[in-house]
Amino acid sequence: MSFATERSWLLANAMCQMGLFLPFVILPSLVTGQMYYVDFGWPSGLVLLGAQGLLHGEGFWLRRWLMGGAVLLHGTRMAFGAFVLFWPFWRADDLPRYRYAKLRFVEMEGQPGQLWPFKMLHDLLQQACANMVILACPVVLSCFDVYPQLGGLEAAGFIIWFAAWLFESAADSQKLYFSRQTRLLPPKEAATAVIGHPPFDGPAYRLWTLCRHPNYFCEWLAWSGLALAAIPSALRHDMGGGGLVATAGVLAMLYCVPRFLYDCLNYWTGAEPAEFFSTRKRAAYADYQKAVRVFWPFELPFVDHGRRAGWPRMLKESD
């Protein structure tokens, strides 16, 4: 593998990501004061990332098609959903998770409101940089790995990604079915209904009875699978002569893939902002929080599963 070639690929990907984010995410967000544009820009960036791995990678064809195709398909599903949801790309107010981000920055953390545009720019650039660096790491490693066989760890990683992608799609489908069912209810009942909580806890909503955010868990698991699949490529790479130190750095970067997604999906734009508003809109949501795990769909020792009303702000306020 040519270190210079991979460096050029990473620079080209960074330019493509900024070419997407600057006109279609950053500038509209700064002009309107709303951040929902990133929900279309980030998965569109994944489409670009996967396509570049497929088209410009120089590694073993099967590994390149599996990694590039996985990221391309992953981004396409989310970008299509965002396109349908946000068309014609104008909203009177921002999405709840971004309203919560501003609320947390100004009211909970006590920062001056005039600094919010800079914090918003920081968060938008963070999403762009994720596509340039952290999430690009498994793609560049696998798509430039010329080793002509696919190992067991790589196969396991891609199987994990595919299973997680299917279950995430199933979780989204169950939520869409829930939305259709609640539209048939009287307005007062529909306003208090909670997916995964009685009476919406039958087989049609099974994934939402295992944890409160199965779609977020599956998103995390999918990227964990891709990071796992890239480990053998990292171990085979000569790292431009950097030796063990460079290899350890790249492995640390692969660790950052699931770590970054875990924090993002739990606290930044995922479970925490969603539950902040749900507990205020639906009285039954507090009972749902007490009964069902927040993120993990199975029990894990030494893990706080967030089974308490008001998660997670109750914990933070008590510290």
Topology:
Elements: H1 3-32, H2 38-56, H3 61-86, H4 96-108, H5 116-134, H6 136-143, H7 152-182, H8 187-192, H9 206-210, H10 214-236, H11 243-268, H12 271-281, H13 285-291, H14 313-318
Helix pairs in contact: 1-2, 1-5, 2-3, 2-5, 2-6, 3-6, 3-7, 4-12, 6-10, 7-10, 10-11
How would you describe this structure to a colleague?
With 319 residues, the chain is an all-alpha fold. The radius of gyration is 21 Å and the shape is globular. 38% of the residues are buried. The chain contains 14 helices and no strands. Residues 314-319 have low confidence and may be disordered. The chain has helices at residues 3-32, 38-56, 61-86, 96-108, 116-134, 136-143, 152-182, 187-192, 206-210, 214-236, 243-268, 271-281, 285-291, 313-318.
- The share of residues in helices is over 70%
Question: How can the largest sheet be summarized?
Answer: none
Shape: globular
For the CA atoms, what is the radius of gyration? 21 Å
Order of helices and strands: HHHHHHHHHHHHHH
Number of helical elements: 14
Calculate the mean pLDDT score and round it: 93
Structural class: mainly alpha
User: Beta-sheet strand percentage?
Assistant: under 5%
The span between the termini is 50 Å
Which stretches are poorly predicted, pLDDT < 50 over at least 5 residues? 314-319
- Total strands: 0
